[in-house]
């Protein structure tokens, strides 16, 4: 994340603490990472299922409101797509 402050001493202390706590990963994190790698096929299948369901829902909304919405840059190889508002302003919603 980001942290903004005008207090240089505070930012220096935060940087020190961050360095101290993140120099090396914790053992539980490494174990969890290894477990995830060993089960990557199941995890990818699960994640792709969520992406497919979300895409199907978004496609239904665009189709049901095709007078107002269209795909600007639809998702091609991942979960991110942009829906174009045909008229009006998004801030009105």
SSE layout:
Elements: H1 8-22, H2 27-38, H3 40-64, E1 69-73, E2 82-85
Antiparallel strand pairs: 1-2
Features:
3 helices, two-stranded antiparallel sheet, single chain, 2 strands, mainly alpha, 10% strand
Poorly predicted ranges: none
Q: Number of helical segments? A: 3
What's the β-strand tally?
2
Range of helix content = 55-70%
Radius of gyration equals 22 Å
Class by alpha and beta content: mainly alpha
State the order of secondary-structure elements, H for helix, E for strand: HHHEE
Distance between the termini: 29 Å
Provide the spatial order of strands within the biggest beta sheet. Answer: 1-2
- What's the overall geometry? flat
Share of residues in strands: 5-15%
Please state the average pLDDT score: 85
Description:
56% of the residues lie in helices and 10% in strands. It has 93 residues and is mainly α.
Summarize the structure.
The protein is mainly α and 93 residues long.
């Amino acid at each position: 994340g980001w942290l903004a402050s005008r207090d240089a001493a505070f930012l220096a202390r935060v940087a020190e603490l961050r360095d101290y706590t993140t120099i090396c990963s914790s053992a539980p994190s490494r174990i969890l990472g290894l477990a995830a790698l060993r089960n990557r096929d199941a995890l990818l299948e699960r994640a792709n299922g969520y992406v497919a369901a979300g895409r199907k829902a978004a496609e239904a909304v665009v189709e049901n409101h095709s007078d107002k919405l269209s795909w600007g840059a639809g998702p091609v190889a991942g979960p991110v797509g942009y829906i174009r508002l045909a008229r009006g302003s998004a801030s009105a919603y």
